[in-house]
Amino acid sequence: MRRPADSPSPPGGPAAAAPTRVAVVGAGFIAATHLEILRRTPGVELAAVADVEEGRARALAAAAGVPHAVTSLAALAELGVEVAHVLVPPDRHAALAREFLERGIGVLVEKPLALSSAEARELAALAAARNLPLGVNHNAACHPGFARLRAEVARGTIGRLRHVQITLSVPLRQLDAADYSHWMFRRPENIVFEQAPHPFSQLVELVGRVRRMDVSLLGTRELLPGQPFHDRWCLAAEAERGTAEIYLAFGEPFPRSTIQVLGTDGSIQADLHHGQYERERKTAWLDFANSFLAGWRRGGLLRRSALAGLARWLATTVGRAERGDGFYVGMRDSIQAFHAAVRAGRPPRLDGEHGAAVLEWCEAAVAGLAASTPAPALDVAPGPPRPGEVVVLGGTGFLGRPTLAGLLARGVPITAVVRRRHALPAVVADGVRAGRIRLFVAALGDQEGLRPALAGARTVLHLATGGGATWPEVERTMVRGTTALAELATAAGAERFLYASSSAALYLGPDCGAEVLGDDAEPDPEPARRAIYARGKAETERALLALARSRGLRVTIVRPAIVVGPGAPFQHSGLGLWVRDNHCVGWGRGRRPAPLVLADDVADALVRLVLHPGRELDGRALNLAARAGLSPRAVVARLAAATGRDLHFHPRPLLLSQALEIGKWIVKRVGGRRDAAFPSWRDLKSRSMHPELRCDLARTILGWRPCDEPEELLRRMVGPRDEDGR
């Protein structure tokens, strides 16, 4: 039963026997982790998933077994929700948390609580006045390695704490993909509010509120014109109970997350990335023996930490234990501690005041930054469609950007359908401002948003991927989303539908029955035995061609092979399994030529296809690959020389790879993981890309001439690099 806002204890307090009804608000990346943990949290009932995109809310709710998917706060109140997990972008945290509190609903907010300490304290005051719980998910403050370190410091193991050193060096997949639309890139200070609350929440626990900070910016780059990004920071701070040095590096290929505390009588270092721990204390021995013992004991602690981590991994793999990695445990302990406090009627440890103190550290870090004004989201009303209008989905991506540039250079009228208006690539933004591109905001599957964009289209060029972590998600977004788009295009009167598939749709194993595979090869006849991406592409191709036959739409499919070039990581899965970003395990021995192709060359083929006046490519598929003759092991070796990176190619026979995968499967099954799928031998064989891919249609009919010269292809694949090798 809902408790009124003026009740003497918060929702789920001692007087409440019923479980706390909880909603997850925001169906983004982190929501699945919250839902997984909430399902395991005592005294919690999952009531709803909320998101402004109803399709995303429904998909996540269905996958997690949550009964309701809604798009409004009012709907959550009607469902009797008592606590909301706010997982939306940071610039919406404070407003959404305030609205929930004013409606009498408690809140757990993903970090940061707000974008200013003053705003955080206003929320804390509102929660106190309404007698409602308010917490912030500073999961790094609950990381098991940090929790152990904090407990030892509190016990006085190293005497009185004097100084803390923190290193946080992390990769950012959005930077690698040149996706600069994320909130953390819109202003130079945003990256601090997005990433630095992790170490700052630990500093609040150890040394308290910040008093003074000196900031040195060690690296800056321009992501887009007028969009600077500070990727390396060095901070020196004085706080209530000690001093601190913090090194922050964003978009780094080598991850590192450590915290070292120095006391009057010892030191402790926790490696939060690897889950390892070491400590040094004074002894009564002479210096030579003390030095030996210091190294010996640190080594012992590291060995025990490493063995404990291995044991946790094995127990998790065989299904004998819940996930034990530091990220998950920190998330679990933070979320469950909040709900335990709610049930007990006491304030959460990581409450509004804690969130405000963390934000004071963020404010001190960005106080000296030059004032910046982010480029406003483009809000140019699209005019009417023009003769020959080409509607492009996926135009902001790796292939989309050069394709749009090529179409603009040929004077083609373009309608670009994008997911958001922020931080659009220059080719899109400049085209919109110049009136050469009509801009619509819609997602694949959003029929109401797509319908006006398709009105008056002559050609639809579909470059958007669609995807998901499970086959139902891929089927919904990639297969059904694409066919629904094609049906909308037909209804809008479009003449042609061009779909960017992938060579992954083909079966390319050594037993495919051919040494050379031509353009019109059928997609894999057994897609259910393939990985979900390959299966999705194969089934989308079949569905589109069936639709073309039944509805009369002119469909052409293009199948780029291993697409490379500046603006994308060179760690392409077509070369092998990149177990680390510098270690590639081959799909076989890696001696056969790999079907590489430059993104610019794929874009050229797509532009030629859009402009091609004939009908001889209707209902057909075109392979797109160069003839450079470079094997995966040769590519990796030459990339190492060109980039200065420590890159390695590890040849491995397919049978050995399959045997290792079967071994993992056996371990999981023995451990009780009945849902573990048997590894697909067919999919593994297809990854070897055994047959040569012929590209006769593009070369003869479209006049396509990709870069076939190996040295030039490699040079253009690597592209210009800065002094750090990026």
Structural class: alpha/beta
- Total strands: the figure is 27
Spatial shape? globular
Work out the radius of gyration. 28 Å
Which residues sit in consecutive blocks of at least 5 with pLDDT less than 50? 1-16, 722-726
Instruction: Identify the strand order in the major beta sheet.
Output: 8-9-10-7-11-12-13
Determine the N-to-C terminus distance.
56 Å
Percentage of residues in helical conformation: 25-40%
Mean pLDDT reading: 90
Number of helices: 23
| Major sheet description | 7 strands, mixed
Q: Strand share of the residues?
A: 15-25%
Write the layout of secondary structure elements.
Elements: E1 20-25, H1 31-39, E2 44-50, H2 54-64, E3 68-70, H3 73-78, E4 83-86, H4 93-102, E5 106-110, H5 117-130, E6 134-137, H6 144-155, E7 161-170, H7 173-176, H8 190-195, H9 197-207, E8 210-224, E9 227-239, E10 242-250, E11 256-263, E12 266-271, E13 276-281, H10 287-317, H11 326-344, H12 352-366, E14 390-393, H13 400-409, E15 414-418, H14 426-433, E16 437-441, H15 447-454, E17 459-462, H16 471-491, E18 496-500, E19 516-517, H17 532-551, E20 554-560, E21 562-564, E22 577-580, E23 583-585, E24 596-598, H18 599-611, E25 620-624, H19 632-643, E26 648-650, H20 654-670, H21 681-687, E27 692-693, H22 696-700, H23 710-718
Parallel strand pairs: 1-2, 1-4, 2-3, 4-5, 5-6, 7-10, 14-15, 14-17, 15-16, 17-18, 18-20, 19-27, 20-25, 21-24, 23-26
Antiparallel strand pairs: 7-11, 8-9, 9-10, 11-12, 12-13, 22-23
Helix pairs in contact: 1-11, 4-5, 5-12, 9-12, 13-18, 15-16, 16-17
